[in-house]
Each structure stands twice: as structure tokens, then as C-alpha cells.
Amino acid sequence: MDVKLFDSELKIMSVLWREGDCTAKHISDVMKEETGWNINTTYTLIKRCIKKGAIERSEPNFRCHALIPREEVQAAETDELIDKIYDGSVDKLFAALLGRKKLSSEQIERLKQLVDELE
Hints:
Blueprint: H1 7-19, E1 22-23, H2 24-35, H3 39-52, E2 55-58, E3 63-66, H4 70-85, H5 90-100, H6 105-118
Antiparallel strand pairs: 1-3, 2-3
Helix pairs in contact: 1-3, 2-3
């Protein structure tokens, strides 16, 4: 993914990924409720996303459409995290995640299945 989105822009994108195409006004209403942002802040962030090529705007009513799928952003952000924090080592990341909290037996079984599928 060539587009780097900041956390605030990812919040805008998450509304589109969760709810599908919607108006900038609707995104603004959701952001006001979820984060307390005013309409100007939200519109500025939407415009930044448009400029970066992450959102497409259409009329009527300033409709917004996500041009980048959530999975693409998740993959890019995960790669960046692994490179930046874990020296590119997926197994270090995995060990850190497993060591952080107690997993249920169902979660452990699901992780085993995921590893088996990779082999």
C-alpha cells in the first residue's frame, strides 16, 4: 500500500468500511458521537483522505466511497509494526501477543488451527 494514513484518517476510513458508502455529513455525525470532533475537523480529514486517494467523493450530497480496502490497510500497518518494533520478526510479534494475556482454550485451539493451515 502506497498511501500512509494517520490514526485520525483511519477513524474516517473505519466508518466507511463499517457502514459502506455514505455522506460526509453522516461520517461527521458518527465522528461527533464517537470522538467529539466537530464538522470542520471531520471534513478536513475526509478531504485529506480524498487527496491521498483513499476516498472518492461523488455528488449529490458529498458521498464518500472507500478506495482502499480495510484488509490492505491492516496488512500494511501490520508489516510496518513488525518491521519497526519486532525487527521484521513475525515470531517475535506472535510471542509478544501470546505473552500479554491469558488466552481461553477456544482461542488457543483457533490459533493452532491457523498455524496448521499455514503449514
